[in-house]
Every structure is written in structure tokens, then in C-alpha cells.
Design goal:
Blueprint: E1 3-5, E2 12-14, E3 16-19, H1 30-42, E4 47-49, H2 58-67, E5 76-81, H3 94-108, E6 113-118, H4 127-139, E7 143-148, H5 153-166, E8 171-174, H6 189-194, E9 199-202, H7 241-248, H8 251-257, H9 261-270, E10 275-280, H10 285-292, H11 301-311
Parallel strand pairs: 3-4, 3-10, 4-5, 5-6, 6-7, 7-8, 8-9, 9-10
Antiparallel strand pairs: 1-2
Helix pairs in contact: 1-10, 2-3, 3-4, 4-5
Length: 315
């Protein structure tokens, strides 16, 4: 496993991170979930990403229990705040950040989180209030670094400007959706972040499993797949046979390299220097093995062009 520096922080995160959206504490049986985390540790994955909203705290509780007893300095723990936790609790107000952070720390069984991320932008709270509350959390030792997920370039720039004008802590990470099939961050978010010491830790690098090649044109989803799950299937990206045919054109590219389609997709994401980690959502230990092996795979310019040619009609 290779590691990359997370923005202007002193955190070194594994190129492959293990996420818990829709999976741990929610859509995956406990013993399978525990096996995935154990396999991640065995494969030297040190970056674990979750959020308070995942299962309304269930994912954090699971990670807190399964990581308990491990050397706290041996892993990088990231969580998020914004989405509704109760009828009264949501958003990025100072009061909510204080309340939700303490609740997350309790569930995670940790005195601090390495990375605390704004899960979305809160248009109902002044940005300076949010940034000041996050800064207080850092300076109180409850948070080491801060980040955000799915903010617009203008929102990111406003936060950067506050670092200079209000003396708040700077962001070190951005968590956008990014994959061979979803490239929107490349236009503005990645260049802006790269210029300001902010790395990407990307979600859905396998497009919710589409890029693994398990879904075939004209066929129903495999019974054990995410798309067939009552819990996880509802958030699958829209796709049709044209998309699946394009993905099938990636199959020989991966075959010529002697790697799986998932490894090809993850290596493509990691080809971007501003990406520090690609977050996977494994439901089986074997998927962790396969995904972890993508770390260190280098793609030539010719391979990158072949990938673009294969999917050019659907991205």
C-alpha cells in the first residue's frame, strides 16, 4: 500500500480508503463488515471514512467498536456533519457542530477525529460561523484537520478567503464524487484545491460498482450486488445499456494490463496527483483485497487515452 499526504496537513493516508456509506452498521451483516475492516488493516489501509448521518450514527458506532483497542495513531479517522440526525438536528451552525462532534466522538470511542468534514454546504448558516466553530474544534484538540464534501468552487473560495481575513483554520481535503464516468471536479474544483493545499478524497470511484464490470448489458443485476439490495440499490447512479456497453470496452484494457476492472478504475482516479485517497465501499473481504491491489498501479498516457476512447460517448 502506498500513501499520500493529505493537503497541507501532516496526515499520510493510504491511496485506498475504506468508507462506510450504506454498508457498515446498515446494509452489511455484522460479521461481514468486521471481516472487511480486518482485511483492510491487513492490507495496510489506514484511512477510514464515515459520517454521523450514515445509519443515523450506526456506522460510527460500528467503527468505534471494531477499531477499539487498536493503536489510535495507526489509523486516520474521518467523519462528517451536516445531514439531519433528528427533527431538530442538522446543518452547520456552531451549536450543531459542537453537539454533533461530541456525539460522533462518543460513538467512535475516540478523543479526536483526524479529519472532520462538512458533508455539504449549509446555505442557512453564515460561512464564518461554521468556519469559526470548526476552528474552535481544532484548537480544542477534538479535530486535527477539517475538510468538506461536494462544495462548489465559489463556496470553496469563500472559505479560503476567510483563512486570511478571519484567521480560521484552512481546509485540507475535499470529498467529491469522481470516477471514469463522473469527471465534473476536473474543471474547477481540482485546480482550485491543488492551488490551495487541499487534496481530494473521492467517493464512488467505482461508480457504485458499475466500473467493476459485474453489471452486463441486457442482464439483470447479480443477486448479491449493490443494485439488487433493498438498502443500497436506491442510490445507484442512473445507467443504461449504452453505459454498460461502454464499460465493457474497458475489459480488454484491464486484461492487457493483467489487472481487474476495479483496479483499472481506481488506478485511473489515483492518476490525478491531487487525489490523496480513493474511498471504497467493500461488502466482502475479497473486494478489499482486489481494491487494495490498485495502489501503486501506474497507467501510461496511452492507457489513459484508451480509457477515454472507450467511454467517450457516456461521460
Amino acid at each position: 500500500m502506498k500513501y499520500r499526504q493529505l493537503g497541507n496537513s501532516d496526515l499520510q493516508v493510504s491511496e485506498i480508503g475504506l468508507g462506510s456509506w450504506l454498508t457498515y452498521g446498515v446494509g452489511v451483516e455484522r460479521d461481514h463488515a468486521e471481516a472487511c475492516v480486518q482485511r483492510a488493516v491487513e492490507r495496510d489501509i489506514n484511512f477510514f471514512d464515515t459520517a454521523n448521518a450514515y445509519g443515523r450514527g450506526a456506522a460510527e458506532t460500528f467503527l468505534g467498536e471494531v477499531l477499539a483497542g487498536r493503536d489510535r495513531s495507526s489509523y486516520v479517522l474521518a467523519t462528517k456533519v451536516f445531514f439531519r440526525m433528528s427533527r431538530q438536528d442538522s446543518g452547520l451552525s456552531a451549536a450543531q457542530i459542537r453537539k454533533q462532534l461530541d456525539a460522533s466522538l462518543s460513538r467512535l470511542q475516540s478523543d479526536y477525529v483526524d479529519l472532520y468534514q462538512c458533508h455539504r454546504y449549509d446555505k442557512n448558516t453564515p460561512l464564518e460561523e461554521t468556519m469559526t466553530a470548526l476552528t474552535e474544534a481544532v484548537r480544542a484538540g477534538k479535530v486535527r484537520y477539517i475538510g468538506f464534501s461536494e462544495w462548489s468552487p465559489d463556496q470553496i473560495q469563500d472559505a479560503i478567503d476567510l483563512v486570511g481575513s478571519a484567521g480560521v483554520e484552512p481546509f485540507v481535503s475535499s470529498q467529491p464524487q469522481y470516477s471514469i464516468l463522473w469527471r465534473r471536479p476536473e474543471a474547477k474544483v481540482i485546480p482550485l484545491c491543488a492551488a490551495n493545499g487541499i487534496s481530494q478524497v473521492v467517493w464512488s470511484p467505482l461508480a457504485q460498482g458499475l466500473l467493476t464490470g459485474k453489471y452486463r448489458p441486457g442482464q439483470a443485476p447479480p443477486v448479491d450486488s449493490r443494485a439488487a439490495s433493498d438498502v443500497m440499490g436506491g442510490v445507484m447512479p442512473d445507467y443504461d445499456d449504452d453505459t454498460l456497453v461502454a464499460i465493457d470496452r474497458l475489459r480488454p484494457i484491464a486484461g492487457d494490463l493483467g489487472i481487474s476492472m476495479a483496479q483499472l478504475a481506481l488506478a485511473w482516479v489515483l492518476h490525478e496527483p491531487n487525489v490523496a485517497s480513493a474511498i471504497i465501499g467493500a461488502t466482502k473481504p475479497e473486494q478489499v483485497d482486489d481494491n487494495a491491489a490498485a495502489s501503486g498501479v501506474e497507467l501510461t498516457d496511452d492507457v489513459m487515452k484508451a480509457i477515454d476512447d472507450a467511454v467517450g460517448g457516456v461521460v
